[in-house]
Amino acid sequence: MSAEPSIDLHTHSNCSDGSLTPAELVSRAAAADIDVLALTDHDTIAGLTDAAARADELGLRLVTGVEISAGWRAQAIHVLGLWIDPANPALRRALAAQAELRSLRMRRICARLSAVGLPGERLLAAVEANPGLPTRSHLAAALVAEGIVSRTDEAFRKYLRRGRAAHIAAEWPALATVVGWIREAGGIASLAHPARYAISAGARRQLLAEFAAAGGTAIEVVTGANAAHHVEACAQWAIKSGFTASVGSDFHHPQHAWNPLGRLAKLPPGVTPVWRSHGL
Ligand code: AMP
Ligand code: MN
Ligand code: MN
Ligand code: MN
Question: Alpha helix locations (H) across the chain?
């Protein structure tokens, strides 16, 4: 491996709301000269076995990961579990419960859509036809396919986001619980895209403090869609609070040319990369 390996620690496959199979994702990462890749599907580790097999074939280092949905003050927060043991029984039980929550939530969201005159049953069937755990991304795509909205972001704006007809308040387990699962499975908990939550600066400070108190040790300082000033802000939070820094594209779809695998900004000086503790 070269002195500076190319690292992407946040990606999705079609086991959640990405469009590539885990093996296709790893192949694409290898073709993009990525040396170290984490597969971090929403609330599932179902893709890790196939991803690891392809990574072995191609000589790429796969980091076992997951992006778990947690609740904090009625806000959904995403926590990356990196270097987790996928065989850990408690983690597997917890993710089975998350999958159940996702199915239930999707049925409730679609019932809301029916209540405002949309074909909720058909939309639910379209979501459930996907191989992955149901997510609002799948539903947004189904709303586009039905011609109800013209783009997925319009689906969120009109129906799915907080304050809209089909929004269901998050019933995810508490942040500290989720961090506990990750640590118990031997993983590092990294707060995903900390600049993306619509909360005040004071609330964000509290979130970071509670995350640290629960055993979270890293935050995502570089994330695909992040503007440069976000990277700088996240780096400052990491330095101030003693978090190490993770880096990831949050890649979902090859057709989203603006968010490719691995083409990520460098970490600003002064922050400790999360992978230092793993010999990289
Ligand atoms: P869920 O975890 O089921 O609530 O779905 C969240 C996923 O929806 C995120 O991981 C994104 O991939 C996607 N998403 C969230 N907000 C938007 C948005 N405004 N436009 C497009 N996709 C979004
Ligand atoms: Mn997603
Ligand atoms: Mn996320
Ligand atoms: Mn993600």
Answer: 22-31, 48-58, 89-115, 120-128, 136-145, 152-155, 175-184, 201-213, 228-241
- What is the tens place of the pLDDT at every residue in 125-158? 999 999 999 999 999 999 999 999 999 999 999 9
Whether the CB-CB separation of 20 and 26 falls below 8 Å is answered with no
Which-ligand-closest: CA of 136?
1
CA of 17 to the centre of ligand 2 (A): 5
Tokens 């700088």 locate to 232
Q: pTM of whole model > 0.90?
A: yes
Question: Cα 197 to chain center, whole Å?
Answer: 13
Ligand 1, atom 9: closest residue by C-alpha: 137
Residues lining ligand 1, judged by CB closer than 6 Å?
Answer: 17, 42, 69, 135-137, 140, 152-153, 156, 252
Two structure tokens written together for 67: 């992006």
Q: Angle at Cα 66 formed by Cα 62 and Cα 67, nearest 5°? A: 135
DSSP-derived pairing of the beta strands 188-191 and 244-248: unpaired
**Cα 132 to ligand 4 centre (Å):** 14
Task: Report CA(145)–ligand 2 centroid distance (Å).
Answer: 18
How far does residue 117's CA lie from ligand 4's centre (Å)?
Answer: 31
Domains and CATH numbers, the chain: 7-94+172-278 (3.20.20.140), 100-160 (1.10.150)
Nearest to 66 by CA among 92, 87, 90, 40: 40
Distance CA 244, CA 148 (A): 43
